[in-house]
User: Which sequence fits this backbone?
């Protein structure tokens, strides 16, 4: 039987055209020098172009006018001198405005010390940037890569490079800029040296400073910061209070004394307490008091987990078990929090039986 297969031929032709485009066989070259596929599927450029090279140098005003170059030079070393003045001002501010118990002294010290350090930093930074942008060589250069060899020729070339860099920067020729920069770099670290020196202990035996606090026999436990005394009846199970010794707010070195004597007061069930021999009378009906100063690096332990009876230091997550005499159960601390022996007076107020029986604060203070 006869039939028309024209549709089949069209389909074959279409398939062949697609195959040719996909394999790159059906490609026509145009007059413009491009190769392009049937149907405009791809265009491959065959043109080439010459290397345009580096653009022409646009000289700065300081390159063309010696007067403006001298003005820029004066600006640079003036900024370096400002940096030196800022460093000296920071040193003077540190000594002229010491930090005391008054918060105003903290503000004055921070403001003037910060102002001096800012001037010292900005003077060096702005001077260096202005020097580079206005006075250093602005000519484009081309470095040819070559194997690195420790030959005499290589060393000679290195010397020439350093000599050329010195000439381009003007470091050796512009003595005022060089000397003022050296002076600024020498003066800038001095405030940091003074600040770090202030952190050093004044005594050869820091542990001796932490062996005693304001707590003594009969000292009442008072709330921080109000200074109100605390009665045992006011401390309920699961509660926690931040405690300072009575009279601390009236002492001239209040902050130093508080840093050693701060205490956390809590109440738990007496049956839950694990008491070691010799400490049977250190708590009062489940009320216990422990140093607030972490034995790791001295951060304030301020978080009390009511359900687990754990104390948590927020700095490095050292965790102490209140039920077990604040032994360390997690974290980098290596020593339990010192316990303050407490009892009540005739009026029902909580009082200390004595000072802490061991140094408070970081354990490394005890090491020789």
Assistant:
């Amino acid at each position: 039987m006869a039939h028309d297969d024209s549709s089949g031929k069209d389909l074959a032709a279409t398939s062949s055209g697609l195959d040719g485009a996909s394999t790159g066989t059906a490609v026509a070259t145009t007059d413009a020098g491009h190769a392009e596929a049937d149907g405009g599927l791809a265009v491959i450029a065959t043109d080439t172009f010459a290397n345009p090279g580096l653009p022409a140098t646009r000289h700065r005003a300081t390159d063309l006018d010696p007067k403006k170059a001298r003005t820029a030079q004066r600006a640079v070393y003036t900024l370096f001198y400002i940096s030196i003045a800022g460093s000296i001002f920071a040193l003077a501010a540190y000594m002229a405005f010491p930090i005391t118990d008054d918060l105003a002294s903290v503000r004055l010290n921070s403001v003037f010390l910060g102002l001096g350090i800012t001037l010292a930093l900005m003077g060096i930074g702005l001077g260096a940037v202005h020097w580079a942008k206005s006075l250093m060589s602005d000519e484009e250069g081309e470095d040819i890569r070559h194997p690195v060899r420790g030959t005499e020729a290589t060393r000679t070339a290195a010397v020439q490079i350093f000599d050329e860099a010195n000439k381009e920067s003007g470091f050796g020729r512009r003595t005022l800029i060089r000397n003022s920069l050296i002076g600024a770099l020498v003066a800038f670290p001095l405030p940091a040296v003074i600040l770090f020196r202030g952190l050093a202990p004044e005594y050869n035996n820091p542990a001796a400073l932490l062996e005693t606090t304001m707590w003594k026999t009969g000292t009442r436990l008072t709330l921080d910061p109000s200074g109100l005394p605390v009665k045992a009846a006011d401390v309920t199970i699961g509660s926690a209070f931040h405690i300072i010794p009575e009279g601390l707010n009236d002492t001239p070195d209040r902050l130093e004394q508080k840093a050693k004597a701060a205490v956390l007061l809590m109440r738990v069930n007496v049956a839950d307490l694990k008491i070691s021999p010799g400490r049977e009378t250190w708590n009062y009906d489940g009320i216990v008091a422990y140093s607030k100063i972490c034995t790791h690096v001295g951060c304030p332990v301020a978080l009390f987990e009511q359900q687990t009876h754990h104390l948590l230091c927020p700095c490095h997550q050292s965790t102490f078990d209140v039920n077990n005499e604040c032994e360390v159960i997690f974290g980098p601390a290596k020593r339990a929090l010192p316990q303050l022996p407490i009892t009540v007076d005739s009026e029902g107020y909580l009082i200390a039986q004595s000072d802490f029986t061991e140094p408070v604060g970081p354990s490394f203070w005890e090491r020789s």
About this structure: Residues 103-134 form the longest helix (32 residues).
